[in-house]
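Standup notes
- DV: blocked on the single-chain target, sequence here:
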Amino acid sequence: MAAAKVIDAIRGLERERFRAMVDGDGPSLDMLLSDHVIYVHTNGKRETKQQFIDAITAGRRRYRQIEIQSQDVLPVGRETCVVSGRALIEMEAKSGALLFPIAYTAIQAQEDGHWRLLAWQATRCALE
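- DV (later): unblocked, structure below
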């Protein structure tokens, strides 16, 4: 039963983080991401927490929508969960809207009693 609650909580945090990315909500992202997060985008660009948040809040990276298509959450011990999933990303670019599917792996870990994103790596997938 405890594992089911953790899985539900992690799913909620993932939705909350995606919503904060779309909304450009820097304070929420600050709470949801570990200070030590390693964030690797689909293009291979690696960012720190501050670089990631700054790009979103400054409008250099604009997410229009993030739609979770599938998501598996695997608790690993009491303080870590590995999330693997697929999502459809819609971003605003200078040339217009970009729409592409991704496969991703995220690691959520307990820090001072709070779950925070510790690592993210995404790969752009072919449109099916």
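- Follow-up: Residues 2-23 form the longest helix (22 residues).
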